[in-house]
Amino acid sequence: MIELRNVSFAYEKDHPVLRRITLTIRDGEAVGLVGANGAGKSTLMKVLLGLEEAQGSVLVDGLEVTKKNLAQVRQRLGFVLQNSDNQMFMPTVYEDMMFGPLNYGLSREEAEARVDRALRQLGLEDLKHRHNHRLSGGEKRMAAIATILAMEPEAVLMDEPTSALDPYNRRIIIRTIRSLPQTKIITSHDLDMIMDTCDRVILLSAGEVAADGPADRILRDRTLLEANRLELPLRLQ
Fold first, then answer.
1. Nearest to 32 by CA among 44, 20, 21, 22
2. Which residues pair with 56 in a beta bridge?
């Protein structure tokens, strides 16, 4: 579903952030994108979403990520930001969830049906008419995921979904991620969460793919992780 062919990117000439990345993410996969700070994780997400224009080819569901196709590409990809305050900008959860579907040209009735489906899927019906400024951090993160699901994307991209959450809300987010049927790409420094939610791990180092394979194998490889400035998940230490 998502394919990168020889993708490179630099913010400044002669200082590449991504170097000749070629990989395929298949429909329904749950992929953890890990690496030390500066490895290129966030930049790769921006390239997938068309927020940065890279050399090489990026295809989503057969569509090349170009300015011409950007609207169609973004209907297929939902992006959950690390800071939910940057995503939830309307007064209530309901208004935030309606915004995307209505923007896509759906009728109010169709948009409302999507909102109700997403809330029911996550068991969040009680948040529908809550004011965003009265939500806890965990509730707001869950509401942000529901907002993306209301747009019914084929893939969900998440940036550090468990950062700054207490253990209780972290467990809820992990259960939610595991329940989602969509293709998932998750960047995180929380390797225990990646182990709990992802079948596959792509390890980036200095803008290159240092490893790509089953999560259980890569996240248990102390030598590989330490060579790329990471540590074993806490449960394995």
1. 44
2. none
Q: Are strands 15-25 and 2-12 parallel, antiparallel or unpaired?
A: antiparallel
Say if CB 133 and CB 85 are below 8 A apart.
no
**Strands 208-214 vs 15-25: parallel, antiparallel or unpaired:** unpaired
Q: What mean pLDDT is predicted for residues 124-136?
A: 94
| Greatest extent of the chain over all pairs of C-alpha atoms, in Å | 54
- What the chain holds in terms of domains, given with CATH numbers, is 2-236 (3.40.50.300)
By CB neighbour count within 10 A (0-12 exposed, 13-18 middle, 19+ buried), where does 104 fall? middle
Evaluate if residue 185 carries a pLDDT over 90. Answer: yes
- Lowest model confidence (mean pLDDT) among 126-135, 144-153, 164-173: 164-173
* Closest of 54, 35, 84, 3 to residue 188, by C-alpha: 35
**DSSP state at residue 161:** T
pTM (2 decimals)?
0.92
Strand order in the sheet with 2-12: 15-25, 2-12, 55-60, 63-64
CB atoms within 10 A of CB 3: 17
